[in-house]
């Protein structure tokens, strides 16, 4: 699988992040099996598709919490959380503060940024 295909997978996730992207949907988009896409995604990005999706959703939600006055429920639903409570629980687990605390105080959190895709070195024989 080429690096450009990995980039296409990452870009597809980013473009569809508020539309409940799935591994099956991504694999259909790039034309490979879900199993192969999952393995190559993890090999090149360093985490699973599901973990990447979770981290990016929380990161983008955190940016909206900080930079907008949108209701937490609206942000939660936009990024695929089943409820405001589920969003708050995931947010607190990831960042150590509630969305409300994050919005109102100067709290620094470690966000998960979209990765730059680079070739994985092949083992020398």
From TrEMBL:
Q: Which domain of life is it from?
A: Bacteria
Question: Which positions are tagged coiled coil?
Answer: none
By its UniProt entry, which PROSITE patterns does this protein fall under? HTH_ARAC_FAMILY_1 (PS00041), HTH_ARAC_FAMILY_2 (PS01124)
Q: Fetch the SUPFAM superfamilies from UniProt.
A: Homeodomain-like
InterPro entries, per database record: Homeodomain-like_sf, HTH_AraC, HTH_AraC-typ_CS, MarA-like, Tscrpt_reg_AraC-type_HTH
Q: Which GO terms describe its molecular function?
A: DNA-binding transcription factor activity; sequence-specific DNA binding
Keywords in alphabetical order, please.
Answer: DNA-binding, Transcription, Transcription regulation
Residue intervals of the HTH araC/xylS-type domain: 7-105
Question: What is the protein name given in its UniProt record?
Answer: Helix-turn-helix transcriptional regulator
